[in-house]
Specification:
single chain, 691 residues, Topoisomerase I, domain 3, Topoisomerase I, domain 4, seven-stranded antiparallel β-sheet, four-stranded antiparallel β-sheet, 21 helices, 25 strands, globular
């Protein structure tokens, strides 16, 4: 556990984190390994009760500023984009996948707006450098321009540098507004061009300079405990290249200010009152899953793939069912585990990173004309002093035990029976002896424990085919999923990304007793009740995670019972939509929109209508829609981004109670609020990804 203290001084209030107790450092998340075990015994570990007791001792206790350390810092601009860094940055900033990024880049390139987008080069032509420097001097002033042009060298092994870095095309860069007017302000092309323009211009600007401040507070506890807290702040003294990254903001100076973390101008020896000390629990988290951006970065580090193949690699592993996306995270499937086991046990060389990297190098030499393709291919297939592909396959194929390879150990039950997961023709399933049970298709392998597997094995198996749909001839089945029982029309086709139509069972329906006729009615939802007399738009009756409701454009109203989805008439629907939305305890308003599951919490994300406008929520974190966001155009990626930004800001602090003696007529307005600065919790926004 940690302690977060809010300290009140004459210069203002700020938050700080506990770092030592009686001279002993307090353990943080970095002091534990990935199994939750502490790495050493020299740090103090606070449990919940200990944190609560210590907070009580320190709240309101005597405290003072022990030290104030200020250090200058300098930040250099990032190089222009190459293929991999463009894909990574578009993934982080825009939530674009690699394929989406390259598609937008291709359209920009074909329109003559950017240079070739498949390159390892970080070099800008002399004309491009001159254009960027002229733009910097004209738009920001000569003080932002370094004396000499900046040059960058690629750190990528065997970089393919036949082309320039990715930059705006021509000797005079078109402004992002010009591209937005041509493609549309919210288009992928406009967003990606804005990213490229800023990165290119910033790469030819001066360093950003600032000052970082660390404040240490000493607190003497009521029961004798001596504790120290620290807070860090950052101030930008000269924005340098950061100025380019706030281009297009309504208020660039305010945007730069958002990247600062301000602390009151306290001095060593000043009095500080701990007006609130809050215990805060923390958990050791596993390493983050790969995203498309981080996987591309790792491939580049291993020298696997090239600028022309990164996007296709990412697409292929998804199209073949080896991974699926959960938010922005790439989650491996049971099929992937079985495939990797097969390759590692029987074709080790083919999945060796160094072998693949050497093969990429050979292919580069062939492409450059330095190596003859025919002899290389012959040696690769038939072998030459080593086992070729033909011999490797023929000698191993008979040794493969498909059933053994396809068994992914989960653990043993209380009786010592092995529990395994397998990937089957109709999806993943779990097995214990002769007993089997289907697994939800969206269950990640690392989330399947022995206990959860036994739950699936011992649950009544209600998955069954109910019959055929008379209109399409497709089978109708009832199944068990992550959110309960549902009916499904047809099967997921291996070569299609389109999911079969599904509909959840009503609360009063039984999976064991549901019939074909009921299933077909469920699959007919949402039902068009009729057209609204005001605008002729459809009124829909549909079911959601929060119950049945009517929807007409942006308006929605709850229904009392699920059966009303099939019985509510047009007049009744129009009347209900005219009524004010209910906000009682009986039923929550239906969401304005449902999006995917959040990659951090794993919970479903919806858009709701709040007191101050629409907001996205996963049930734990709420984030208001920003200027330019609309409910209709809000994407899954944007919703997840808003939630993540809100999490990074941390919880909103309540105002500290002001003491009458603290009020001063000469005090600054900011200080008299006695409120922890909202920016204190938020880390500075990074303007661009690091190389």
């Amino acid at each position: 556990w940690d302690l977060i203290g809010t300290f009140d001084t004459e210069k203002g209030a700020f938050d700080a984190t506990l770092v030592t107790v009686d001279g002993k450092a307090v353990a943080t998340g970095g002091d534990f390994d990935d199994r939750g075990q502490r790495k050493g015994n020299n740090k103090l570990i606070l449990d919940e009760q200990g944190a609560i007791d210590l907070a009580g001792q320190l709240t309101g206790a005597p405290a003072n500023i022990a030290s104030v350390e200020a250090k200058p810092y300098t930040r250099k601009p990032y190089p222009p984009f190459r293929t991999s860094t463009l894909q990574q940055e578009a993934g982080r900033k825009l939530r674009f996948g690699a394929r989406r990024t390259m598609s937008a880049a291709q359209r920009l390139y074909e329109g003559g707006f950017i240079t070739y987008m498949r390159t390892d080069s970080l070099t800008l032509s002399a004309a491009a450098v001159a254009s960027a420097r002229a733009l910097v001097a004209d738009r920001y002033g000569s003080e932002y321009l370094p004396q000499k042009p900046r040059t960058y060298a690629s750190k990528v092994k065997n970089a393919q540098e036949a082309h320039e870095a990715i930059r705006p095309a021509g000797d005079s860069f078109k402004s992002p507004k010009t591209i937005a007017s041509q493609f549309g302000a919210t288009s992928d092309e406009a967003k990606l061009y804005d990213l490229i323009w800023k990165r290119t211009v910033a790469s030819q600007m001066k360093n950003a300079k600032g000052e970082s401040v660390k404040v240490t507070v000493a607190v003497s506890g009521k029961a004798g405990a001596e504790a120290t807290f620290t807070a860090s702040g950052k101030t930008i003294l000269f924005p340098g290249f950061l100025r380019a990254y706030v281009e297009g903001s309504d208020d660039p100076e305010a945007a730069l200010d958002d990247q600062e973390t301000h602390l009151p101008a306290v001095a060593e020896g000043d009095s500080a009152t701990p007006v609130a000390i809050e215990p805060k629990g923390h958990e050791t988290k596993p390493p983050a899953r790969y995203t498309e951006a981080s996987l591309i970065k790792r491939l580049e580090e291993l020298s696997i793939g090239r600028p022309s193949t990164y996007a296709s690699i990412i697409s292929t592993i998804q199209d073949r069912g080896y991974v699926y996306k959960k938010g922005s995270a790439l989650v491996p499937t049971f099929t992937a585990f079985a495939t990797v086991a097969l390759m590692e046990q029987h074709f080790t060389d083919l999945v060796d990173y160094e072998f693949t990297a050497r093969m990429e190098d050979d292919l580069d030499e062939i492409a450059n004309g330095d190596l003859d393709a025919a002899p290389w291919l012959r040696d690769f297939y038939f072998g030459n002093g080593h086992s070729g592909l033909q011999n490797l396959v023929s000698s191993n194929i008979e040794e493969i035990d498909a059933r053994e390879i396809n068994a992914i150990p989960i653990g043993v039950d209380a009786d010592g029976n092995m529990v395994v997961a397998r990937s089957g023709k109709f999806g993943p399933y779990v097995q214990r002896g002769e007993q089997t049970a289907s697994l939800p298709p969206d269950l990640a392998p690392d989330e399947l424990t022995v206990e959860k597997a036994i739950e699936f094995l011992e649950a009544p198996n209600g998955d069954r085919v109910l019959g055929k749909d008379p209109e399409t001839g497709l089978e109708v089945s009832v199944r068990t999923g992550r959110f309960g029982a549902y009916v499904q029309l047809g099967e997921q086709q291996p070569d299609s990304k389109k999911k079969p139509k599904r509909s959840s069972l009503f609360k009063d329906m039984s999976q064991e007793e549901v019939a074909l006729e009921e299933a077909l009615r469920l699959l007919s939802l949402p039902r068009v009740v009729g057209q609204h007399p005001e605008d002729g738009a459809d009124i829909l009756a549909q079911n959601g995670r929060y119950g049945p409701y009517l929807k007409w454009g942006k308006e929605s109203r709850s229904l009392e019972e699920e059966a009303q989805l099939f019985t509510v008439g047009l007049d009744d629907a129009v009347r209900r939509l005219k009524e004010p939305k209910k906000r009682g305890r009986r039923a929550a308003a239906p969401p304005l929109k449902e999006v995917g599951d959040d990659p951090n919490s794993g919970k479903p994300v919806v858009v709701k209508d709040g007191r101050f406008g629409p907001y996205v929520t996963d049930g734990e974190t709420n984030a208001s829609l920003r200027k330019g966001d609309t409910v209709e155009e809000l994407t899954d990626e944007r919703a997840m981004e808003l939630l993540q930004l809100r999490r990074e800001k941390g919880p909103t602090k309540k105002k500290a109670t002001k003491k009458p003696t603290k009020k001063k007529s000469t005090a600054k307005k900011k200080a008299t609020k006695k409120k922890a600065p909202a920016k204190k919790k938020a880390p500075a926004k990074k303007p661009a990804a690091s190389e």
